[in-house]
Amino acid sequence: MLSQAAAMVGAPAIRNRGTVGGNIQSASPAADVVVPLLALDAKLVLASIGGKREIYLKDFHLGPGKTDRKPEELITEIRFDCLEDDRSVFYKLGQRNALAIAIVSLALQISFSSQNEVTKVAIALGSVAPTAVRASNTEDYLLGKTLTDETIRMAREMLTKDIKPISDLRASSEYRDSASQVLLARALKSVMPNSNTSCRGAV
User: pTM of the prediction?
Assistant: First the structure.
């Protein structure tokens, strides 16, 4: 899912010059790479002449354009774990395929037991709140369940408790709410045990 998100940042010229750290530091609620990193429970290493410190990405963004980084600090590392048996996917809804700010984006990382029950799940969304967010209520609902049509329908309803979309020039809050539910259902169906979408590693 991280490679999928990185491939959707801007256009080739922007991707060739930009950095993942820059995408994070922008603190945009629509930043493409932030969403999968949030689902991966990523940590940032911030360094300055005074030393280093670690902070979870979920705590780094304080609001649109606002972060916990001090003026003298640089983002020097991004750390996260990714297990071989996890499945993951990233979806972005925009007005076009390139140079588009996300109307809604969603990243999903999930693991299943041998009985096809959800043993671990992380869902993150962008452009639906002042910062990218984890869908904690939806995650809690899915744990221990098998993915059926009814489970996915209930997860869609639960998602409305996790997001607070606004209306702007790109979309209304109602559209974002509906689109978020559609992307969640699409993501869950794409990673069901009979599919072969998986998370291969870290950067």
Answer: 0.90
